[in-house]
Amino acid sequence: MNVPTKLGVFAAALLIVFAAAYAIAAGVAPDRPRPSSAESTHVGHTAQPSSSASPGADQVRGVSLAAGGFILGNVVAPHAPGMQAPLSFEILDAAGAAVTDFATEHDKQLHLIVVRADGAYFRHVHPTLSPEGRWSLPWQWATGGSYRIYADFVPAATGQPLTLTSTVEVSGDYQPAPAAAESRQSSVDGFDIELAGHLRAGAESELTVTVRRAGQPVTTLQPYLGAFGHLVALRQGDLAYLHVHPEGAAPTAGQLAGPQVRFATTAPTPGRYLLYLDFQVDGAVHTATFVLDAPTGAPAPTTNSTAPSADPHAGH
Q1: Which of 83, 218, 225 is nearest to 142 (CA)?
Q2: How confident is the model at residue 72 (pLDDT cuts 50, 70, 90)?
Q3: Do 112 and 218 form a contact (C-beta atoms < 8 A)?
Q4: Who has greater pLDDT, 34 or 124?
Q5: Are 267 and 297 in contact (CB under 8 A)?
Q6: Which residue has the higher pLDDT, 161 or 307?
Q7: Which residue stretches belong to region Disordered (predicted)?
Q8: Which of the pair, 16 or 1, is modelled with greater confidence?
Q9: Pick from 274, 14, 9, 18: nearest CA to 150
Q10: Cβ atoms < 10 Å from Cβ of 127
């Protein structure tokens, strides 16, 4: 047998051996299981966040500088405490153009909320709008630190309320305030204000504030921003902005009220919330501050609950 013939026979024998080995392995080794949908997603890095990952996310505003096709942009502010300079910004549409047409909400076209990251130095103000679409007002920081600004407005083009937020870093000394404890009483400018009611995670509840001065109920509350008080609530930690609205009919010009003002709100998640109440007396606006907890578990009872059932297990 010549050499080429010998090599051909040898190659054919090798092929037969490899084929037999493969058949034996296929019969002994189990089929590789197909990855589950979760494993496939992990391998491809295309996992989508679960809807339960951020409970209550659809009930909060003011956690993003862009929403609903609008952007809070071109923010300019003093960079150090003590400087007098404008705080200004624009609301931009999806094409990057400054928006100039806004609906009036609570007597204003835009509400600007400014608060330091630790919840201190809260201010609720109303800048003016230039014909070119730039909002501005004179500004001065009291201390250094990281500040959140919230633009609360309703674009006339959509009629849908939006709250957009941005962060401003201010150089200088910064001593963060101690972590806030729950507090239902606040004293400011000679007024004593008490907050009653409970926050309920995932359900609307009523909060009632009572204003007194020198121990006597104040019955001369004046309309402010379309109500006898304006309440802002921020979730401690991420400072998410909660929608709070006054109860009852809007006041008429010259009408006075007090000592109580009621509000309705929903805590999107359990946790601690910082509340800021603006009210007006004798033409001056005052700001009271509170801290409330929305507990984990069953919602807290409201003050106007009906009498409990005789069955202690009713509703469970």
Answers
A1: 83
A2: very high
A3: no
A4: 124
A5: no
A6: 161
A7: 33-59, 295-316
A8: 1
A9: 274
A10: 21
Q: How many domains does the chain have?
A: 2
Average pLDDT score over residue span 58-65 = 75
In a domain, 4, yes or no: no
pLDDT score for 297 = 56
Same domain flag for 73 and 135: yes
Asked, for residue 308, whether it belongs to a domain, the answer is: no
Question: Which CATH number covers residue 202?
Answer: 2.60.40.3340
List the domain range (segments joined by +) for residue 80: 66-170
Q: How many residues does the chain have?
A: 316
3-state secondary structure of 94: coil
Cite the beta strand spans of the chain per DSSP E. 66-67, 70-76, 85-92, 110-116, 123-125, 128-129, 134-139, 145-153, 162-170, 185-188, 191-197, 204-213, 216-217, 221-222, 230-235, 241-242, 244-246, 260-266, 271-281, 284-294
Please report whether residue 11 resides in a domain: no
Position 95: which residue type?
A
| DSSP reduced 3-state for 24 | helix
Residues of the chain with pLDDT > 70, as a percent, come to: 75
Measured CA to CA, the distance from residue 129 to residue 111 in angstroms comes to 12
Does the residue 105 lie in any domain?
yes
Q: Spell out the residues 6+ positions from residue 164 whose beta carbon is closer than 8 angstroms to its own.
A: 62, 64, 65, 66, 67, 70, 71, 72, 91, 150, 151
| Interior angle at CA 219, CA 214 and CA 222, nearest 5 | 115
What sign does the CA torsion over 37, 38, 42, 47 have? Answer: positive
113, 136, 170 — which closes off a domain?
170
Residue ending a domain, choose from 141, 170, 199: 170
Please tell me the distance from the alpha carbon of residue 151 to that of residue 162, in angstroms, as a whole number. Answer: 8
Give 61's pLDDT tier (boundaries 50, 70, 90).
confident
Global pTM? 0.75
Q: What is the mean pLDDT of the chain?
A: 80
> What pLDDT, in 10s, does the model give residues 37-50?
333 323 333 233 33
